[in-house]
User: Fold these one by one.
Assistant:
Number 1:
Amino acid sequence: MEIAMNLVNALSNELWSKWVLIALLGTGILVFFATRGIQRKLGLTLVRTFNAFIKKDKKESIDDESEGNISSIQALFTALASTVGVGNIAGVGTALAAGGPGAIFWMWVSAFFGMGLKFAEIVLSVTYREKDKDGTWRGGPMYVYKNGLNSSWAGAIFALFMVIVSFVSLNMMQVSSVANAMESSFNISPMVTGTVLTILTALVIFGGIKRLAKVTEILVPAMALLYCIGGLMVLILNIDKIPSAFALIIKDAFTGQAAVGGFAGSTIMMAARFGVARGLLSNEAGCGTAPMAHSAAKVNHPVEQGLFGISEVFIDTFIVCTFTALVILVTGVWQTGNSGVVLSSKAFGVNLGFIGESIVTIGIALFAYSTLLGASWYGETSITYIFGSKSIRPYRIIYLLLCFIGANVGSNFIFALTDVANGFAVLVNVISVILLINVVKQKTDEYFSLESSLMKKN
């Protein structure tokens, strides 16, 4: 067992310290040039996202003949349900502790290119999606391989990896984090936490994509708003330190940070490595997960939904992750030697005491729960690709059992194994984007050319 553990850990470290990061960032740069900087449309995507959410009329901009199961904004929030997760709290804390303040700058850089990568993934997934026999639209890297590259076996490989990830990384690990936080902060038994989360998850996932979309449409904005309000309170109390925090982030990104107290110190390379890694892992650009949710959207053109992917990365990294980072920096706790959730919790507690620490604990619970919901759809889509729709109910039952088990049992070996599965899934996914980059370019040019023509006529 020890030999297997060492082998899996070595493979995980090799994948995530070099190859996966090179593949993600490299593909993001490729998309940037192929689309002539699709990030320039950020303002347009944010306006559309805001309007779609505020108006509440989800069919207002949707042609009656558009194919899909849910609205574009519902697809966005379903994707954000898993994207905005524990990584926004623990991941930022880990990046700061290991890479220093400069890691946040590189997190922003990775998110910039990640916006384009997420856009490309969604465009391809919507282009090559298909409807199952139950009338549900399904897409994702597996369908891109099947319908775009005529390679069903490569799609099956991705789907298999994603089933493992949905069971462990996006399920058991999330529940385990919540159970530990709830026991530490409120002395609630992991058994109770596991039972409650399992029941709440079951109530949603057995309703299919439409019920999942309705719940996440309410849950995601609410939980993000609660967390950001808490962070805003801390920032207001330390408003005079915000400019210096930004200055420290920029300076440290190019100079590194010397060791201070319990802080391990960092170099420019360490800052870049952990910033890029945590940024891409947080917003899931290139992971192939979010496109599965976006593929169920009712849209007239793939690029129309792809633009919502840009908003997704912006909300996750530039808003939620940045709030976490600034709170940690302005309160000075980044130099204490703590890491992950502990670092974030201490930061919120400096000015807000028990209330601040409770905001982090509740945030972890809500973020993890939303991830459970979003991940169930990814695993369900993957298992359907491999075995057909008859496998959906068994998958849901196993998913719920593992949800309960995750609160009570932890295994470093299982978690390391899912890191390997996730790493290979990313590599398989970005290969499809690279091979079909001309399709992304063609669809992008086509959409904006049509939009330009319509504007001239009006």
Number 2:
Amino acid sequence: MQAKGVQPKVTIIIKALNEERRIAACLQAAVSEAQSVQGEVLLVDSLSTDRTVEIAQGFPIRIVQFLHVGDRNCGSAVQLGFQYTQAPYLYVLDADMILQPGFLATALSHLCADSGLAGVAGKLLDSRLLTVYDQRRAEKAVALTVPIEVGELGGGGLYRREAIDQVGYLGNRWLRAYEEAELGMRLRAAGWRLLRLPTPAVMHEGHFETSVAMLARLWRNGRATAAGVLVRGALGKPWFVRALRSQAHALAVPAMHISSALIGWLLLLDNGSWLAGYAAVWLGWFVLLCARKRSLGGGSWTLLLWHYSAITLLLGLFIPLRDPLLPIAARELVYENLDHAIQQRDSADEPTEDRSHTVGE
């Protein structure tokens, strides 16, 4: 924690909700990295009901909390952290991630050397690969061998506050997901660039669920509809085309249905059933997907995921838009006897039941 009156150079913003099992390891690494770059750690707690805050109070950090449960989600947690700091550089981190030693200094050196960079990220390494998404991310991490410019810093990264101030806000408080993608779109539309380094940045524990269970969870907590909110919010904005491209797989579904119906009707105009022609064309699409994925399961999963995405995109388009610049009601926790809290830190690290996979993690 910075001394009173000293402006930190970097603020590490950590999003947490019911992370008692993992918060100590996350904070220990974050505090160490912050100290190496004249920084601070700011924990954004989404009104946890477990011992997350109690454990966090054993570390030299700042803690802010939402006042209202209804305000918490991924985008608002990021924006709330932004409200509570004036540091010139901001690192966004999830509580199930552990910052790797030295990465913060490396990312900071790139931002200081290139005034056109708005943000820098590195490799996100997963320790558990149960979902298709985790597996794909792991494949991308292995393939990354040189620095590349990217459209977004998924998995967190270090941002230049000057760039964030120019585009208005760090996280759209109404986005339950895609907050990093939307930020990348706004930054690139304003002329800024984003860089991903082939350097390990964080270790991510991964999800304790299958791909199907993950889709069910995202449906229940409403995060699945964020794609529609993203596209609707981009309407009329310079990044609208980028928003549409990000949902190309979902937009492909209605296009495939319309083309299949048209082709089926043309092929069987004089004889046969239109429905049979329509089904035959869709069988062709399915065979192509299986060939591309090199497996029947891969093709089936892709087809399911595309339809899921199309439905949730449509539902999200009907969610009313609200101003992302509206301030978020919150409070900063002030706790005394910090030395005593630090002495209790080690006893707070015992494993407990994992209840972290909820909205706002």
Number 3:
Amino acid sequence: MFIAVVVYLGRDGYVDAEGGPLSFLDTLYYASVTVTTTGYGDISAVTPVTRLAALVLITPARILFLILVVGTTVEILTEQYRQLLATRRWRRRVNDHTLVCGYGSTGRSATAALLADGVAPDGIVVVDTNSLAVEEAALAGFTAIKGDASRVAVLEQAAVERADSVIVTPNRDDTAVLVTLTARELNPDAHIVVTVKERENVHLLEQSGANSVIDRSAAVGRLLGLATRTPRALTVIDDLLDGRSSLELAELAPVSGPDGSLEVPSGVSAIEIIRGSERLLYGSVAGSLQAGDRLIVARPCEPAGASDP
């Protein structure tokens, strides 16, 4: 605009290829081809005054424009290179992290639960196709990657092959199946947890390699029924689900008692026993714990970072 105004004020000293007077549109055209160094030459300065204006005013404006263009390009390329180096350094050191595929409301709740359980933010990697979700994850302190988690290249960028666990929370069940299949192929040992909308798709996720499948619709329905029939019991479940409460579920190993037998650690209430692939109510096998058993217990919340035996 600056160049167009300068040329328009001195339009009597310019001539176009047709020999006619310059309009303001002509001066805008001249400014654009001059600044971008296109220079068609159909409008040119013919008087000493306009040539001096081109030398003193228009040429510096052209140089400034080129500096801004080149500077912006170099800045973008430098930032991309810096991010590439940072990603490479991160990939070399990351190990046993948790990969969250999908940072919607469910993914955010999952990361909040992980943080409440003592997982450090740098131990969580988020993958999402939405730019705003990726920005929010980065602001929360997580490593955030924009891309489709069903693609091998994206999961490899997130170092899925070294992940300890993978949480899959897409909006579609077919996407969940594809992400689970890809993650399981790249990491046969990861613990994969998936949410599903339709109960009929639970077996598909299990066959795809998911260790745990959460049926969101059924879970919400059961909570609604529980809130109707036994509202006080729902408050206990709320405490278990709320990482900021004083009560939590945990998986522990039995400890040796005074007589050498295995027993439940003190200060906790056993609910179930995991014995191999079986789940046993604690009351049905109390007093007969075996080596290798795992206990599902309710206990007071421990400080962040405390570890289970």
